[in-house]
Design a protein that fits this description.
By secondary structure, the protein is mostly beta strands. Helices cover about 0% and strands about 60% of the residues. It is built from no helices and eleven strands. Strands 2, 4, 5, 6, 9, 10 and 11 form a seven-stranded mixed β-sheet that branches. It has a four-stranded antiparallel β-sheet with strand order 1-3-8-7, with no helix packed on it.
Length: about 120
């Protein structure tokens, strides 16, 4: 089983930057993909970015060129996926959830709020 905890959300002005991080622990050797979804009020959850084995990445069109997903493996027991968000826009406001896919399930973090407002 994989446990996920996000950090780094908050309030930022339009054009600003934030970095979200998600620490994975537990059976991290089984993970083959990590990523981020977001859900704005009244909207469906949207896939934002994915990173797979070999550092293959995908982004939804609205964040291409502004967001970057990357991973850091600190040791055998911990694995972090981060989302660097630049040039943030009000429409990026949402709760951001990280996920980790293992052979059995998609594991989810509890979410972190990102608010882009002046």
């Amino acid at each position: 089983q994989v446990q996920l905890v996000e950090s780094g959300g908050g309030l930022v002005q339009p054009g600003g930057s934030l970095r979200l991080s998600c620490a994975a622990s537990g059976s991290i050797e089984t993970i083959y993909a990590l990523g981020w979804y977001r859900q704005a009020p009244g909207k469906q959850r949207e896939l934002v970015a994915t990173i797979r084995s070999g550092d293959n990445t995908d982004y939804t069109d609205s964040v291409k060129g502004r967001f970057t997903i990357f991973t850091i493996s600190r040791d055998y027991a911990k694995h972090t996926v981060s989302l660097q968000m630049n040039n943030l826009k009000p429409e990026d406001t949402a709760v951001y959830y990280c996920y980790a896919d293992d052979a059995i399930v998609r594991n989810w973090g509890p979410g972190t709020q990102v608010t882009v407002s002046s």
